[in-house]
Design brief:
heterodimer; A: 361 residues; mainly alpha; Serine Threonine Protein Phosphatase 5, Tetratricopeptide repeat; B: 608 residues; alpha+beta; Heat Shock Protein 90; Ribosomal Protein S5, domain 2; seven-stranded mixed beta sheet; 21 helices; 40% helix; elongated
């Protein structure tokens, strides 16, 4: 089997040749569902479920697992909901290990999803097994599965970003760009390049490297437009808006900012953590701490009870810090943050930080 | 100092763009040329003022010479018009005529189809050489225009006796299929079936096109039925909703949306959330595209139809429509008329409405989950597969006393189903992904209804009883390391059932994986972490054996235990039968063991 696309394209060609509408539908649901990625993630998931159901009825276990895998992937990355994700990711992993999937090109994606699920839930608590899993998956890559390297690199980058290891994230990003260069202008390469540029922007901002932020945000814009990723495009444009504000081009910054909020409001995909980070940067530059507080509460509302324990804890701590800075009461928020932290596998560092905050009041 | 320059046009390049990028199918060239002929006939009728004018289009094909000819007795072109309209890209007479007519006669203006002045160029999609001969209604000589699709054309005196235009196309090899009469007929009918001007192919005196859409036929109901069978290849529709001109409320004003056509509900659908919900789109009776999926509301995936509205704006290739404000108005009008039509069916023909909802249950359930208004319309009608056949929630609740019992896997020989039926309660098959969210939504909107998932929670169908009377039985099992309890459940014929906690199968799989070592260690570690967390409550993955206090055999064994050997054999049999009945948790090795135990116990019984 020569990789992911070959398998599906061969299946679709056969379905066309045999004029089999059900098999054709089975092969085509994937792209139809992906089209809903940003505008209606729930609909995308419904279509993946439909694919699973159809595959079961037609007796195609590879396709069944393929659509189950996409449900997990879409729930994490389109809907950003991690509440029940481990159950499904574990179930898929246990299915994919069976000998009938030895040649299944998507097997490594199933395994990657399990690492991604733990990463989305508690990256800090499960850092070591996540890293080891990614290494193990990398060892499974055959030449036909080379394109999965983009995804693995992307996971490593996300892990580093989640853990605030910015040098490491930058190194991963540069490796990601090298992979993109190697693959030329294929859709896969363009697709992954968008995420690399977004991450590099985040790193550049965190490291205070405004020049790099300008470069990465502009370089990412074109591939984002080409592959049509609206969320990531908004993120890149928002970084450019941050730069405009920093350069004292206030009119332009405000105009872009309003336009971006409208654009993002039209998507039903929840914003990425990086998008919120860029929003924070925008308001922080103008010292708008009240707005920052409101924004952080919004971010919290969007992510709480979604099973994103580490992220939620970080946002709660950020809120406490902001409230403290504004000399507003924080007792209640501190307690909520403590409760969130206690759900983590390694809560100590966060609890200490919260105690420090409490003492400083 | 800047110098004003003029663009130049490279016609072969433009033709290449048209051929390769604007049109997705070369057949479209036939449509464009028929439409030019049509518009020319309309022009003659409007501007000619003749009382006995009979418009006509003739199409012939000569396979030997590879020539396709499209001829009309329309208005024809003068030399000036050939220069201004035929040979100027982007400028078409139709558009200018429409603008003129729209001031005086809106109805005639809307009959015209052409729009962009690009249509004639599509002749070069089909042909390596195009010859046009035309004689204008305005008088003057006949002209012969000839081009091979480069920057030049030849214009010379031509010969044609009657007023009108003939286009001869020297067909390219890639469109050889048009040399077959059947393919040509299909293409003409596909695009021009509804055009009101007769089209004759290969000299046949009968027109090949219907010339009127089914909704304008003498017997529209029958014509629409026939059309559905011919075009959509389905069975008899469950209902047909004719479309009519609509008034759309814009808030500050209302607007008339010209709308013709019909919607219909096919008799049934394969479970798919995107199966239908599509329309064949016409603009001024000219076919534009099929399977347009965005004009109908997303919940209407069980509806199909045909729509004709001059308000819709075709793209330049006229193979699809612009999703602009007009599109939105038509979409709004369609949604209103569909909603109204279905409401009327529900009120005046409840049995038909029931057939609609039941014929498309899976699709409807899928959409109702995401659409509150639609949910309200169907919540009590839609049917679910249950252990007693298809039932609506209303019908189900009458049987279950206000509770919804469901299993998330296909109903088979599940013990949950047996238990449910034992309590005289049917179980709902929620294996179709949308069923559980639908039931959850229903329960959340009807506080009096509770929702009970039976897989892994079947204990809810059991009544607890004091265990003292059954201690000898329980002791026997506990000594064997088997978790056992006593409860009362129906049917009384079932002496014992083995129930597993939710997720036990997954834990079993994880165990099998651990034993086989078939996952790389870090992955296995992540799996184990999850399993350990999930079953931290100490549930027994081997399951719990429930002895039925309502079963006469269990009572007899508790009250009058037989000899120890017989007692042991019977209790072993009961356990193994329950184990085999539960089935799904057994590996092949487990099943062998269960059979061995069973046959061993039977052998014990047979000993003298």
């Amino acid at each position: 089997m020569n990789g992911y696309w070959d398998w599906m394209e061969a299946y679709e060609r056969e379905a066309v040749a045999e004029r089999d509408p059900e098999r054709l539908r089975l092969a085509r649901i994937r792209s139809e569902a992906y089209g809903f990625r940003e505008t209606n993630p729930a609909q995308a998931i419904a279509l993946y479920q439909e694919g699973e159901h159809l595959a079961q009825r037609l007796g195609h276990p590879w396709w069944t697992l393929y659509y189950r895998q996409w449900q997990v992937h879409a729930t994490m990355h389109f809907l950003r909901d991690y509440r029940h994700i481990l159950n499904d990711a574990v179930q898929n992993t246990l299915e994919a290990r069976k000998p009938q999937y030895d040649e299944f090109p998507q097997r490594v994606s199933v395994y990657e999803d399990l690492a991604a699920a733990y990463m989305g839930i508690d990256a800090e608590g499960y850092e070591e097994p996540i890293r080891q899993t990614l290494d193990a998956v990398e060892r499974m890559l055959t030449p036909a599965l080379e394109s999965r390297r983009h995804s693995l690199e992307s996971q490593r980058r996300d892990l580093a970003l989640e853990l605030d290891r910015n040098d490491e994230a930058r190194a991963c990003g540069l490796r990601g760009l090298a992979l993109v260069d190697r693959d030329g202008r294929s859709w896969t390469a363009l697709h992954y390049s968008v995420f690399v540029y977004c991450s590099l922007c985040q790193v550049a901002y965190r490291q205070g490297n405004w020049e790099a932020l300008a470069e990465w945000s502009h370089q990412g814009e074109s591939p984002a437009r080409q592959v049509g990723h609206q969320m990531e495009l908004s993120e890149l444009l928002l970084w450019q808006t941050v730069l405009a504000r920093r350069d004292k081009e206030e009119d332009r910054a405000q105009r872009w900012y309003r336009r971006l909020l409208t654009r993002i409001g039209q998507l039903h995909m929840p914003p990425t953590p990086a998008f919120y980070e860029a929003l924070h940067a925008y308001h922080e530059l103008a010292g708008e701490f009240d707005r920052l507080c409101t924004l952080t509460r919004q971010e919290l509302r969007a992510i709480q009870n979604k099973g994103r324990l580490h992220y939620e804890t970080r946002v709660r701590i950020k809120l406490c810090r902001l409230l403290a800075r504004l000399s507003e009461p924080i007792t209640e928020e501190l307690e909520s943050a403590r409760q969130a932290a206690r759900q983590l596998k390694k809560p100590e560092r966060h609890l200490r930080e919260l105690e420090d905050l409490a003492r400083s009041r | 100092m800047s110098e004003r320059q003029r663009f130049t046009l490279h016609l072969p390049g433009l033709l290449k763009v048209l051929a390769e990028h604007l049109y997705s199918s070369k057949k479209v060239g036939v449509r464009e040329l028929i439409q030019n002929s049509h518009d020319s006939c309309v022009r003659r009728r409007v501007e000619g003022g003749e009382n006995d004018y009979h418009p006509r289009i003739d199409i012939t094909v000569d396979p030997a010479k590879r020539i396709l000819t499209i001829s009309d007795n329309g208005y024809g072109l003068t030399q000036e018009e050939i220069t201004n309209y035929l040979s100027t890209i982007g400028r078409g007479y139709t558009r200018e005529l429409r603008e003129k007519l729209s001031v005086f006669s809106q109805s005639e203006a809307t009959e015209l189809i052409g729009q962009f002045g690009l249509g004639f160029l599509s002749a070069f999609l089909l042909a390596s050489e195009v010859v046009l001969t035309t004689r204008s209604f305005q008088g003057g000589p006949c002209y012969r225009w000839q081009s091979v699709g480069d920057e030049y054309y030849d214009l010379a005196p031509g010969w044609r006796e009657e007023i009108g235009t003939t286009v001869e196309l020297k067909l390219k090899p890639s469109v050889s299929f048009l040399l077959q009469e059947r393919a040509l007929l299909d293409t003409v009918r596909m695009y021009a079936d509804f055009l009101p001007i007769p089209i004759h192919v290969q000299g046949d005196e009968d027109a090949v096109n219907l010339m009127q859409p089914p909704w304008e036929a003498e017997d529209p109901d029958q014509a629409m039925q026939d059309y559905i069978k011919r075009t959509f290849h389905g069975g008899d529709p469950l209902t047909i909703i004719p479309l009519r001109e609509a008034r759309v409320d814009l808030g500050h004003d209302t607007l008339t949306v010209p709308l013709k056509g019909f919607l219909f509900v096919p008799p049934g659908s394969v479970a798919s959330v995107r199966e239908f919900g599509d329309l064949n789109v016409y603009i001024r009776r000219m076919f534009i595209c099929e399977r347009e999926r965005d004009l109908l509301p997303p919940w209407a995936r069980f509806v199909r139809g045909v729509v004709d509205s001059p308000l819709l704006q075709p793209t330049a290739s006229r193979e699809s429509i612009h999703q602009d404000e007009n599109f939105e108005l038509v979409r709004q009008a369609l949604e209103e008329q569909l909603g109204e039509g279905l409401r009327q069916v529900a009120e005046s023909a409840p049995s038909v409405w029931k057939r609609i909802v039941r014929g498309h249950s899976d699709v409807i359930i899928g959409w109702a989950v995401n659409d509150n208004e639609f949910f309200e319309r169907v919540e009590d009608i839609v049917t679910f597969r249950t252990s007693r056949g298809p039932l609506s929630i209303k019908e189900y609740l009458e049987l279950s006393g206000g509770k919804l019992y469901f299993v998330t896997r296909e109903l088979g020989s599940l013990q949950e189903q047996l238990l449910a039926e034992g309590r005289d309660v049917p179980a709902i098959d929620a294996s179709w992904f949308a069923v559980t969210p639908f039931l959850e939504k229903y329960a959340s909107r009807h506080q009096e209804v509770s929702l009970i998932q039976l897989d892994g929670e079947a204990e809810q169908l059991m009544r607890s009883v004091p265990e003292e009377r059954f201690l000898t039985l329980l002791r026997f099992y506990r000594e064997q390391g088997i978790r056992a309890r006593v409860a009362s459940f129906k049917p009384a014929e079932a002496p014992a059932l083995l129930l597993y906690p939710q997720g036990a199968e997954m834990a079993r799989e994880a165990e099998a994986s651990r034993e086989a070592g078939d996952l790389p260690p870090p992955l296995a570690g992540l799996v184990d972490q999850y399993i350990a967390q999930k079953f931290a409550g100490g549930q027994d993955l081997k399951g719990t054996l429930y002895l039925n206090a309502g079963c006469p055999l269990i009572r007899q064994l508790a009250e009058n235990p037989p000899t120890p050997a017989l007692f042991q054999a019977v209790l072993t049999l009961l356990h193994q039968i329950a184990r085999l009945f539960a089935g799904r948790m057994l590996s092949a090795a487990d099943a062998v063991e269960a059979f061995r135990e069973t046959t061993g116990a039977i052998a014990g019984l047979l000993q003298p």
